[in-house]
Amino acid sequence: MSAKKVLVAEDSSVIQNLTKKILQFQNYEITAVKNGKEVMKELDKGSFDIILMDINMPQMDGMTCAQEIRKLSDPVKAAIPIVAITGNAKNYSDDDFKSAGINAYLQKPLDFDRLVEVVKEYTA
């Protein structure tokens, strides 16, 4: 069985590296980018099983990026589960996340056990 592919979009290299290490340890294949524009570029090149996306990123934030992904013409890519990672979830309601096309969200500081659980749940 091939490894599940995770796209991590996070502009903090500390969180990006931690997330990478933890998920690689769980045998996920990780691609990491710094902003929403890079997410769209990666999706042009290939497909992923899940996207972990910081909400506050330069160039294109997570909410905008999620909406862009949901509009993709490729139905498989348009339906990739998106998990938002945010330090200010209280600024958004569940409906905000839902209407942006986000499947779930995780609060910062990240609970890495929960992160692994959520990734497993959406890539099972």
From TrEMBL:
<feature type="domain" description="Response regulatory">
    <location>
        <begin position="5"/>
        <end position="123"/>
    </location>
</feature>
<dbReference type="Pfam" id="PF00072">
    <property type="entry name" value="Response_reg"/>
</dbReference>
<keyword id="KW-0418">Kinase</keyword>
<dbReference type="GO" id="GO:0000160">
    <property type="term" value="P:phosphorelay signal transduction system"/>
</dbReference>
<keyword id="KW-0597">Phosphoprotein</keyword>
<keyword id="KW-0902">Two-component regulatory system</keyword>
<protein>
    <submittedName>
        <fullName>Sensor for ctr capsule biosynthesis, probable histidine kinase acting on RcsB</fullName>
        <ecNumber>2.7.3.-</ecNumber>
    </submittedName>
</protein>
<dbReference type="InterPro" id="IPR001789">
    <property type="entry name" value="Sig_transdc_resp-reg_receiver"/>
</dbReference>
<feature type="modified residue" description="4-aspartylphosphate">
    <location>
        <position position="54"/>
    </location>
</feature>
<dbReference type="GO" id="GO:0016301">
    <property type="term" value="F:kinase activity"/>
</dbReference>
<keyword id="KW-0808">Transferase</keyword>
<dbReference type="InterPro" id="IPR011006">
    <property type="entry name" value="CheY-like_superfamily"/>
</dbReference>
